[in-house]
Amino acid sequence: MSRTKSREKWYAGGLHFSCTQCGNCCTGPPGFVWVKRWEIDKIATFIGREGKGLTQQHLRRVGVRYSLTERVNGDCCFLKTEGGKRICSIYPVRPLQCRTWPFWGVNLRSSSTWNEAAVTCPGINKGEHHELVQIQTHRNAKRWEDVAP
Questions:
Q1: How many Cα neighbours within 13 Å face the side chain of 6?
Q2: pTM given for the model
Q3: Residues 81, 15: contact at Cβ < 8 Å?
């Protein structure tokens, strides 16, 4: 059996996940939230900067790519607290990388890596059941249209 098949087999029966709006996936150690030019344009329009792009407050260049910026405490620049919940202030136009959480390859390597992610994400292993096809669709998504809002 190939390594890929053995990795996928462990979640063949599906996984449980429902977002609790804790904001933990939007904070933490330094990292990157990669955004494509078309996502930058959608975000800029959403926050009232249509045709102006995003400022350094929101966006940084990393080589030839772009990533959302983080605050000093590790929070994404678009994370806000509202009504006791930590929510994304650009949720309807959040980047594809954010839309596919927690079904990232790094979390799906094994049941151990999935459960490690569950330590900081209270929605993992709880709530809605996602079938294998849904998980694979999220894991391999290249466009917003590939995943549900």
A1: 3
A2: 0.86
A3: no
Phi, psi of 4 (to 5 degrees): -60, -50
**Domain definitions of the chain by residue range:** 3-146
Asked if the model's pLDDT at residue 139 lies above 70, the reply is yes
**CA 75 to centroid of chain Cα atoms:** 13
Answer whether 59's CB lies under 8 Å from 35's CB: yes
119 within 8 A of 55, measured Cβ to Cβ: no
Confidence band for 51, pLDDT divided at 50, 70 and 90: confident
**Contacts of 6 by beta carbon, 8 Å cutoff, 6+ apart:** none
Asked whether residue 7 carries a pLDDT value surpassing 50, the answer given is: no
pLDDT at 3 over 60: no
- Please give the structure tokens belonging to residue 21: 């709006």
Reference 58, options 87, 29, 79, 27; nearest CA is 79
Q: Which two tokens stand for residue 86?
A: 């930590």
